[in-house]
Amino acid sequence: MQENLVIVESPAKAKTIEKFLGKDFFVTSSMGHIRDLEKKDFGIDIQNNFTPKYEITSDKKKLVTELKKLAKDAKTIWLASDEDREGEAISWHLIETLHLDPQKTKRIVFHEITKEAILHAIQNPRPLDLNLVNAQQARRVLDRIVGFEVSPVLWKKVKPSLSAGRVQSVAVRLIVEREREIMNFNTTSSYRVTANFLVPEKDGKVVELKAELNKRFDTREQAFSFLEKCKSAEFQIDDVVKRPSKRSPAPPFTTSTLQQEASRKLGYSVSQTMTVAQKLYESGKITYMRTDSVNLSGLAINTAKQVILSTMGEKYHQVRQYKTKSKGAQEAHEAIRPTYLDQEEISGTAQEKRLYELIWKRTVASQMSDAELEKTTVTIDISNSAEKFIATGEVLIFDGFLKVYIESVDDEDQNGGQKGLLPALTAKQILRWDKIFATERFTQKPPRYTEASLVKKLEEQGIGRPSTYAPTITTIQNRGYVVKEDREGVERGFTEFVLAGQKIAEKQKIEVTGAEKSKLFPTDIGMVVNDFLMRYFDLIMDYNFTAKVEKEFDEIAEGELIWNEMLGNFYKPFHSKVESAINEAERANGVRVLGIDPNTGLELSVKIGRFGPIAQLGEATEEGAKPQFASLRAGQHIETITLDEALELFKLPRTLGDYEGKTVVVAIGRFGPYVRHDGKFISLEKKVDDPYSIELPRAIELIESKREKDLNALLKVFDENPDLKILNGRWGPYISYKKGNYKIPKNTDATKLTLDDCMKLIDGQSTVKKSRKK
DNA sequence: CAGTGAGCGAGCTTCCGCTTGACTT
């Protein structure tokens, strides 16, 4: 018989708390929610005031039985789930499901896992907040309604198995709209002028001073004539201004900022970061990793102080209390920080060590003093024109928090002034120059989202929660709406004029632009679904939709709004949109007419087909004419493919002729260009063969060489059963029999196997099933 | 492993937030 049973949400938390509470308390966890709306059905009785139909989640059945037993035996049950909407609901579900006696049940809350906070909580239990619970029910029911009413519309009008939801559909919208911005972006160029001045130092050395003109020129003529004028100009320093400036450390990590920095600094994906953080949390090394709070406990602030004082000195320390600003933050936890700040390093995998180090540095830096800088701006007059050259430099006077941690940014600024110290300069000083450049520069397209920058954007809009950022990003990729890809850049020429001595030289240079690494691209289906949802469900797709309903959930939590009424108000207009979409919407296939094929006069269009995007040439007619189809290639998209590119698709497959009485065909498949002959596929050689121009002799060459390779791979055949072969593959010998492959145990001489041995091996192994789930 | 593109229309798919394992060709 246990006196006290405490139920928290996570087992790692339970372990920690148990240490603080002593042996009269048994602490266990619910592992999050134990009940949810019915999984199979809609789970809501709409007619009956939106009554939810709950069931115990399938993987919690065993746990619930255990909890029931523990609760029966305990004198007092302390419900210690988080103090937010979801946490309150978890406690309520526990009361309902475990049939807890109100007389012996107490609700407690704490925001940090420290002895002080927990003992204080035990002394101050409070009643369950039913308004907060109802706010959660409203949130849950609304999400189910949106997801389960809109998704089936997509199955009908676009493709089976698709999904829509309050969070995921808006995430896809962000990516689609960004892609279209990039597509429609009008790149322009202008000329940026920079000068290298030569400044003599006291010791006789000459140092370079780089300066940039305060104006860019739109045309090459303007840039050129400016350089012409520079030939005879005098350059004189107008002013040297020194200005102190400060930089402050970033606040401690939340889930979202941890994901961003781990992505930028360590190259982790969002879900990778969460998996590693989970490990650190479970082994007690960091505090809880799903949080939107930047708050540090008093204990942590004190330990940070000790660490900073003892290792860096008082000058480096500054106490800071951070306030969370992000929309919809619920602050049930602390910020993410090391549990023991005096541990600068930990044991663990390389990934764990690196993430820990990042968290440690960020946390310590957040309690450190500002960095002090001095910025110098030098203005240089040009005797024969109104423009001025500007040189900037930045010197670190005191490093402060920068000693430990520098936050990264997403889009690195590529030009900028000279960093570091400028040479000693005085006003009115005349400057001699070495070279002056006028370089053509282009306007930058908006950047594509990375997983982490998408999370940042979602958080800014108050969409999604710390526990769902990673799963949301996975979902939109699993549904095929978005792909994470690298993209090779393309070469772009630009002009540079160099003035040296009294001569201007013009150079044509080449740079690579548009290269992308691990960026999110919308797919064709993502765009079609997005456009469909925008047209028929504008309310759900509104970036402010979540913020609007969140406001109402808050009102419910405050007792100012009845949750079923709120849902009623939402449901009526929403459901009629669902109805009209089902009844009125055409099938959406994203069809786009590219033009007329000049050879046949037939119309060429692209659309989403049953197996993905296809091009279609001609229409089916009553006279029996049939259209031709061709799949789009990887990297080609409905929105961007041109008529010429689409026409190319119909040039394959090409029949090259006959070889040994069988036709030879060349085409492009999933794994690239190939030749097909006698039921066999032979890949073309990369960068050597071109499927559009390859001729029969070369194809025969490929067929023959493939035959030779296969022959070399053939270790043994049996005349009695020609279906069975022993082959030598990439991983050593194996048995091939009727389209199935079978392993040969290690250390057996494959060539000595008899037919009987082989059949035994085959019987012993079940063919590897080829069902692969997405 | 690489083709398909019309169609009987079974039975299935789907949301967001809380939380961990179990599972991996």
Q: Low-confidence stretches at least 5 residues in length (pLDDT < 50)?
A: 767-774
Q: In total, how many beta strands?
A: 30
Q: End-to-end span in angstroms? A: 48 Å
What is the mean pLDDT? 91
Largest sheet: 6 strands, antiparallel, barrel
Structural class: alpha+beta
What is the CA-based Rg, rounded? 34 Å
> How many helices?
20
Spatial strand arrangement across the major sheet: 9-10-13-12-11-14
Tertiary shape: globular
Helical percentage: 25-40%
Q: Describe the oligomeric state of these chains in a short phrase.
A: single chain
- The share of residues in extended strands comes to 25-35%
Polypeptide structure, described:
This protein is an alpha+beta fold and 774 residues long. It is built from 20 helices and 30 strands. A hairpin with a 2-residue loop joins strand 20 and strand 21. The radius of gyration is 34 Å and the shape is globular. It binds one DNA strand of 25 nucleotides through helix 3, helix 5, helix 13, strand 24 and strand 25.
Give structural attributes:
disordered C terminus; 20 helices; single chain; 34% helix; globular; 774 residues; alpha+beta; four-stranded parallel β-sheet; DNA-binding; six-stranded antiparallel β-barrel
What is this structure, in a nutshell?
The protein has 774 residues and is α+β, with helices and mostly antiparallel strands.
